[in-house]
Amino acid sequence: MSIKIYTKTGDAGNTSLIGGTKVPKSHLRIESYGTIDELNSFIGLLNDHLLTFDALKPLNIDLKEIQDRLFTIGSALACDPDKETRMKLPDLTENDVHWLEQRIDDMQRELPEMKHFILPGGHVAVSTAHIARCVCRRAERLCVAMQLQNLFMPPLVLQYLNRLSDYLFVLARYIGHSLHVPEVAWKPRIS
């Protein structure tokens, strides 16, 4: 027998953190891990866009790895740090940040030097990578807000999200380059 997906416990605008603490659905902690979930969904969409390109198939493994790390971050943010959970939660490590840096360096070696700001677009996969980058930056800002409000989160979360947004920017360029999509330079209108 399957578990019911609806519990009706959130109908009054509250939800539970891992550990059982009830908080409003507008709580900054909920907003933070909800944005991580949104980012994870956009990365899934990006991965789907890349499936049809043989040259980009190795990225599918990378994006699945990132989605796994985002679930790790989401579970960490969903925990009440003041309560012990019975669950064993996965950890984010410095190796996860170094892995992103290595992937950025690998892609950048194949890219032409960037000499101007570029407009997002040119291909749906490129645009989706840029959307994911923007959602990642929003998640990072929310986590900074958590820090400013003295809400605990694992220290590597900010570093990982910062590096992930850099990765997604380089990935957007890399996808465009691999698909022979020209970058569109931003040409500011000056009166």
UniProtKB/TrEMBL annotation:
Keyword Lipoprotein on entry: no
UniProt-listed GO biological process terms: cobalamin biosynthetic process
Top EC class, one word: transferase
Domain of life according to the entry: Bacteria
Pathway the protein acts in: Cofactor biosynthesis; adenosylcobalamin biosynthesis; adenosylcobalamin from cob(II)yrinate a,c-diamide: step 2/7
Listed InterPro entries: CblAdoTrfase-like (IPR016030), CblAdoTrfase-like_sf (IPR036451), PduO-typ (IPR029499)
Domain Cobalamin adenosyltransferase-like: from-to ranges: 5-175
Keyword annotations of the record: ATP-binding, Cobalamin biosynthesis, Nucleotide-binding, Transferase
Subunit-level organization: Homotrimer.
Protein name: Corrinoid adenosyltransferase
Organism: Hydrotalea sandarakina
